[in-house]
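Field: COMPLEX_INPUT
Field: COMPONENT_COUNT = two
Field: RESIDUE_TOTAL = 356
Field: MODE = joint
Values follow.
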Amino acid sequence: MPYIEKTMKSERIYDGKILNLRVDTVELPDKKYSKREIVEHPGAVAIIAVNEKNELIIIRQYRKAIDRVLLEIPAGKLELNEEPIESAKRELKEETGYIADKIEYVMEFYTSPGFSNEKIYLFLAQGLTPGEQELEIGEYIDVEKYSLEELMKMIKLGEIVDSKTIVGINYYYNLINK
Amino acid sequence: MPYIEKTMKSERIYDGKILNLRVDTVELPDKKYSKREIVEHPGAVAIIAVNEKNELIIIRQYRKAIDRVLLEIPAGKLELNEEPIESAKRELKEETGYIADKIEYVMEFYTSPGFSNEKIYLFLAQGLTPGEQELEIGEYIDVEKYSLEELMKMIKLGEIVDSKTIVGINYYYNLINK
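Field: COMPLEX_OUTPUT
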């Protein structure tokens, strides 16, 4: 079994709006020490939202961290004490305007376990009713729709390069092709 | 089209061993300002390594950021000026001992574009020759093998919860089932 690292010291570097950074000193089996740089994140939800034509709702959004516009499934951070399913309904409405008749838990996964505790809860939303977006200050999001076949091709062509979006599209592709 | 944010100020918070943290002040269209907390990461590679029985090589490793042991495909950070394909060969050998006859680029994706520039280059490695692991100080990794059917089931059961690993397994599943 892999060695479980014991924390000897934990130094808080930064407490921010969407993330915190700490550096832990851990003890290794040979009594040596090592540093672990850890980004604390509240967790997030992502939503595979499917309309009556079996198209997925995809958002187009600028991402400052990579200075690039990405195509992604709707997603957003968990608020304090918020249940993931409530967060999924809220983010879907805010980012796309859609309200789902039916929303169900699919799976959860870590995005970057080498340096962050960010966990994404993935949901499947169906029975969509369109409405107005409710964007936060500083959010500018275009809402688009693509068929599953288009999306699988866009992954292959490198037009979709966001990991949670690739996981979500593959999940739905395997679900309806099984 | 989404609004491209202009950087008005950039404050360096932390320069570390595997990541840096900076906080950018960006201008929004209405001349308001907002902060963007950004984790700079050198990028990484991940490897779908397949043996002659069509099993995937999976590593079991403790991850301090989530205080949990995870099953993942072999992966690791890019070193300075290192080509991704060289990094993939190096990491595969170091973490699992295997040397691949054939290693090819599959795709690249961002793990957490909301707050980090981490990009993963995914490779497919075949024609594996076993050898000795070359672990770094502080690395403790078990090497295991699973069939594709087992892995697809483990994703469903929540036994595999790492996003790059889910992307890699789905890629290979779709490749051989098309």
